[in-house]
Specification:
The chain is 24% helix and 32% strand. It has 771 residues and is of the alpha+beta class. It has 4 domains: 141 residues, Immunoglobulin-like; 135 residues, Immunoglobulin-like (Sandwich), CATH 2.60.40.150; 200 residues, C2 domain (Immunoglobulin-like, Sandwich); 208 residues, no CATH class. The strands form 7 sheets. A 5-stranded antiparallel sheet has the order 1-29-30-21-26, with no helix packed on it. The longest helix has 33 residues. The chain is globular, with a radius of gyration of 36 Å.
Length: 771
């Protein structure tokens, strides 16, 4: 079932940016930073000053440096009463916006009323040297300050001035002329940065038993359970079936924890003394760094832990130590991969323990070139504006480009690299509007603009893909295009044999198959892992904020959506469409719609019956020929978000409103009632289909169950006769007769159902025993 192409505006477009990849040039950038367009910058590194003259009555000065180029001016921080200050700050001026031929570096003394001029250094832009990595950094030099007449004055300034590109190592931490309007407090929030996700472990707590518990009420059988708390995660065992002071459980509880281990594992043994009333019988705390690390399925050693109890005596909390203890098997499970993203879009499948990692099979390079036609995301000074940056996530490494201030056509031209351990993984790239530039403490959020996913297994190795991806976002008002992002991607394979060998391996580490976790457990643990990752990255400097991490990790992908349900239904129909097409084709053969084709099928069938050893070779040869035929029309571009496949182009507004509703719902009761009734009607249809499938299955079961004695008698005698006939008749003759009967001419057919089908439909099912 071929879907019609989606609108051209939402489609992927191949581009031809002016990048170094594939070009034969003398520039070193072509081989080191070749997936992005070159951007020329003038760099000024202000290192330090010495022997600055005193300007105030105390003979001291409060110096700072201004770097001026045309209308752009960068300023260092100032020092109080210091004549030998050290700044070590870098300023980068984009060559595209240079409006002057003279660079002026001015040293000033901070004053209450008017800052005093102390001296300056002037540079002709034509005289500034060019430097391209991997050249060593330019060594700073001392320059004598001059007054406004060009005469030497007291004081020297150490500077390095050079022309370079964005490949320069000074680029990420430099002050940029593009962001001249950003105040000193917001500069940290606009820089590019690389982040590493915290290393996540599963903690397995096997609660075995407890001994010598001391309940307050000795006259009743205790109903004891164990509650385990780790950070903001809390789980509890079932109530012990052995209602005694020596209860047993033998239950596994799983938690997620990140290195470095900051939390304690807290276990409390509690007795259910009444409805919603629990009494603590004992408590123990276990530091995580003392736990054994397990790499395989072999069980770790068990340990007994003493339980402590706190009682309040005369208003003071006292600790009582007694002989109660608990038997546990606790370990850090390093053989699992801790899922922190949706399993459909995983970027990493390695186990936690580094000892179990295989060697990398390749390298992924991403060039974030630019974006076009971004929509205004906020209002500033009465006009729409967007401060866009790009974030990308693959494996444990997250990257964030610098923020381009106030531009709907930002140019980043930043290149990043990742090691690849499995080709069946996905890189996610998101574009966001920076809401923390002006001051950064306004409590605003970084608004999402759009997202792109690229699956590595769909890329040819060593080929540079340059495409403009539409940034599509689903809103409560429908699907909207928020602009386009231009990317360059290259997947380089180190060892083709190792990569092909991986296709025979399980997707996840072997512990997921030897000791599998339940779907509910995995979903809960994934949610906890997401929370931990977003919290840790939001504490970095500059922070990768919670809303960014959650959007990149698809935190809400499990929520109910009528649109997504329809899309998945039609995906199933698309998969089954091939079988349906084969069924229709075979039906046309049986009904002699094309006599020549039917005669050829008869000949092929007779050959296969007479020479059955040709059946499997014929099938595989047919599949081989289909594959070779389809190679001509293989996809030449990476797949992208499809609005038609997602059913986002013609979705009902109420269904979208339901999809964007909070959980629990925040809509009025009449809207919720209408949606509930709609869900009931859909569920009713599903229920009918499931019931029909169950009925057909039960009819097959009743063939030999004697629920209908006459039908079972007929079937049993038929089986006896069939056994005798099949014993004396060669299989090839039987197959030939059945095949010729199925392919018989329409003149020998009638429209009534066949005898076996009539017999099956008459068999009883258990549906008549249901309410």
């Amino acid at each position: 079932m071929q879907k019609p192409p989606q609108p051209q505006d939402f489609a992927l477009k191949e581009t031809s940016p002016n990048i170094g990849a594939g070009a034969v040039t003398g520039d070193k950038l072509s081989c080191t930073y070749d997936l992005v367009e070159q951007m020329q910058y003038l760099y000024v590194r202000v290192v330090k000053a010495k022997d600055l003259p005193g300007k105030d009555v105390t003979g001291s000065c409060d110096p700072y440096v201004e770097v001026k180029l045309g209308n752009y001016k960068g300023v260092t921080k100032h020092f109080e009463k210091k004549s030998n200050p050290e700044w070590n700050q870098v300023f980068a001026f984009s060559k595209d916006r240079l409006q002057a031929s003279i660079l002026e570096v001015v040293v000033k003394d901070k004053d209450v009323v008017l800052d005093d001029f102390m001296g300056r250094i002037m540079f002709e832009l034509n005289d500034i040297p060019k430097r391209v990595p991997p050249d060593s950094p330019l060594a700073p030099q001392w320059y004598r300050l001059e007054d406004r007449k060009g005469e030497k004055v007291k004081g020297e300034l150490m500077l390095a001035v050079w022309m370079g590109t964005q490949a320069d190592e000074a680029f990420p931490d430099a002050w940029h002329s593009d962001a001249a309007t950003v105040g000193p407090d917001g500069v940290a929030n606009i820089r590019s940065k690389v982040y590493i996700s915290p290393k996540l472990w599963y903690v397995r707590v096997n609660v075995i038993e407890a001994q010598d518990l001391v309940p307050t009420d000795k006259g009743r059988y205790p109903e004891v359970f164990v509650k385990v708390v780790l950070g903001n995660q809390a789980l509890r065992t079932k109530t012990s079936p052995s209602k005694s002071i020596n209860p047993m459980w033998n239950e596994d509880l799983m938690f997620v924890v990140a290195e470095p281990f900051e939390e304690l594992l807290i276990l409390t043994v509690e007795d259910r003394v009444g409805p919603n009333k629990d009494e603590v019988l004992g408590k123990c705390m276990i530091p995580l760094h003392n736990l054994q690390r397990r790499l395989d399925h072999k069980p770790v050693n068990t340990r007994w832990f003493n339980l402590e109890k706190h009682v309040v005596v005369e208003g003071e909390k006292k600790e009582i130590k007694f002989a109660s203890r608990i038997h546990l098997r606790v370990c850090l499970d390093g053989g699992y991969h801790v899922l922190d993203e949706s399993t459909h879009y995983s970027s990493d499948l390695r186990p936690t323990a580094k000892q179990l990692w295989k060697r990398s099979i390749g390298i992924l390079e991403l060039g974030v070139i630019s974006a076009q036609g971004l929509i205004p995301m906020k209002t500033k000074d009465g006009r729409g504006t967007t401060d866009a940056y790009c974030a990308a996530k693959y494996g444990q490494k997250w990257v964030r480009t610098r923020t381009i201030v106030d531009s709907f056509f930002p140019k980043w031209n930043e290149q990043y690299i990742w090691e690849v351990y499995d080709p069946c993984t996905v890189i996610t790239i998101g574009v966001f509007d920076n809401g923390h530039i002006h001051g950064g403490a306004g409590g605003g959020k970084d608004a999402r603009i759009g997202k792109v996913r690229i699956r590595l297994s769909t890329l040819e190795t060593d080929r540079v893909y340059t495409h403009s991806y539409p940034l599509l976002a689903l809103h409560s008002s429908g699907v909207k295009k928020a602009g386009e992002i231009q990317l360059a991607v290259r997947f380089t394979c180190i060892s083709l044999i190792n990569m092909l060998y991986l296709y025979s391996h399980p997707l996840l580490p072997k512990m997921h198959y030897i000791h599998p976790l339940s779907v509910i457990q995995l979903d809960s643990l994934r949610h906890q892992a997401m929370q931990i990752v977003s919290m840790r990255l939001s504490r970095a400097e500059p922070p990768l904020r919670k809303e960014v991490v959650e959007y990149m990790l698809d935190v809400d992908s499990h929520m109910w959506s009528m649109r997504r349900s329809k899309a998945n239904f039609f995906r199933i129909m698309g998969v089954l469409s091939g079988l349906i097409a084969v069924g229709k084709w075979f039906d046309s053969i049986c009904h002699w719609k094309n006599p020549l084709t039917t005669i050829l099928i008869h000949i092929l069938f007779i050959i296969l019956v007479l020479y059955p050893e040709l059946i499997l070779p014929t099938v595989f040869l047919y599949l081989f020929l289909i594959g070779i035929w389809n190679f001509r029309w293989r996809p030449r571009h990476p797949p992208h978000m499809d609005t038609r496949l997602s059913h986002a182009d013609a979705v009902h507004p109420d269904e979208l409103d339901e999809e964007f509703d909070t959980f629990p719902t925040s809509r009025p009761s009449d809207v919720v009632r209408m949606r509930y009734d709609r869900l009931r009607s859909i569920a009713g249809r599903v229920q009918t289909v499931v019931g029909d499938l169950a009925t057909q299955g039960e009819r097959f079961q009743s063939l030999l169950s004697w629920r209908d004695p006459r039908a079972s008698t007929l079937f049993v005698f038929f089986c006896l006769i069939a056994a005798i006939v099949l014993y004396v008749t060669p299989f090839q003759v039987l197959a030939l007769l059945i095949g010729l009967y199925v392919l018989r001419h329409p003149r020998f057919r009638h429209k009534l159902p066949s005898v076996p089908l009539n017999f099956l439909r008459r068999l009883p099912a258990r549906s008549d025993s249901m309410f």
